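User: Assemble these into one structure.

Assistant: Restating your components, then the assembled model:
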Amino acid sequence: AQSVTQLDSQVPVFEEAPVELRCNYSSSVSVYLFWYVQYPNQGLQLLLKYLSGSTLVESINGFEAEFNKSQTSFHLRKPSVHISDTAEYFCAVSRPASSYKLIFGSGTRLLVRP
Amino acid sequence: KAGVTQTPRYLIKTRGQQVTLSCSPISGHRSVSWYQQTPGQGLQFLFEYFSETQRNKGNFPGRFSGRQFSNSRSEMNVSTLELGDSALYLCASSYSDSDFEAFFGQGTRLTVV
């Protein structure tokens, strides 16, 4: 079975500072990895995904994540955050054979302060 | 292109009642998944439908059921509601089983009193 651990429930950071949201997963088989963002009273939006190939994946709004197989991690980073990045971020995994079934971490609330 | 639509957005029900939630996927999408989100348990997979067939079900009691219609719209039903069923229920759709991007609706906030 797969599982996802997000060690930080909340990460406060000042605007324009860098941030890293940590995600570790556990699986005996290969997995796909995802980061989703949830704004208040909204559904989830896909931020970025790793399926195969380059271990560094980027989103259009400046976030990036690196797949590290040896450390079973998929940490999310942004070099300079904005107030508008304040949201809940979820790391998720799925098995290629059943990619529609996402296993989510408990989420990390990113709080960007002016 | 319209997104995933869930109705209603908010619902208040009494313990013991039953409830039906609706999800209209993005046009052309054939896979619909349902998730329950609570502060204590986080996001948990309920079930997934593809071309009117349930392909997988999460660890939820039989009170939770669903179905998918020929137009890919899906409904989930919860019978004999319990206080612990209070949650945000999210629906996600994707084009096919090889499409790795799931598009989520805004959810239905169910409160059981």
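Chain A has a mean pLDDT of 92.
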